[in-house]
Each structure stands twice: as structure tokens, then as C-alpha cells.
Amino acid sequence: MRRSESQAQNRQVNSGAGVYLERIDAKTFKTSFHSFRHNFEDACRNGGIPPHIMNALQGHSEQGMAGRYGDGQYKLGLLKDAVDRIDDSEWDFGPVSRIT
User: Fold this and answer.
1) Per-residue confidence in pLDDT tens, the chain, 100 aa
2) Is 35 helix (H, G, I), strand (E, B) or coil?
3) What top-level branch of life does the organism fall under (predicted)?
């Protein structure tokens, strides 16, 4: 996929997410689709997840020379273990959980 196609898809997802957040009355000054990424990064840091695993979970490519070696793939079990370390006990899913 070309970069321009990817950017167009990202804009479409962001727009749709904004409409969804408004519909469920969860849209505020500090909420957007992108804010989910920021919250996820904070949760990963607080869970002690290494930056390279956090980047893999977010779909980011590995930077520097490390990104040039190997196939760049992590085993699913390793990623699952990292996700299991995330503490979501303080997250408020109230508005989202109301939608059926």
C-alpha cells in the first residue's frame, strides 16, 4: 500500500471514530481516536513493557539498525504476555460499553 493510500485510510478511520465518540456522548476536548494511542503508550510504560515491544503492539516499525535485521516479527506469546501486563483497572469504558 502506498503512503498516500494509508494516509487516506487513517483520515477515514479517525473521522469515523470521531463521529462514533460523539454518538455515544464520549467526545470531549481531550478525546479523539488518537488519544487511545496515547493512553495505550502510557499503560505500556506503566506495565514495564520495553519500547520495542510497545512499538510492535502499535504496529510501528523498529527504528535504527535493529529494524534492518531479522524478519521483524515477534512471537504471539511474547506480545500476549506484554498485553497481559497492562493494568486497565482505571480505564473508563462506560460510554463504549453502553453501545449494543
Assistant:
1) 566 676 677 677 667 777 777 787 777 766 666 677 788 899 999 999 999 999 899 887 777 666 666 677 889 999 999 999 998 887 776 666 555 4
2) helix
3) Bacteria
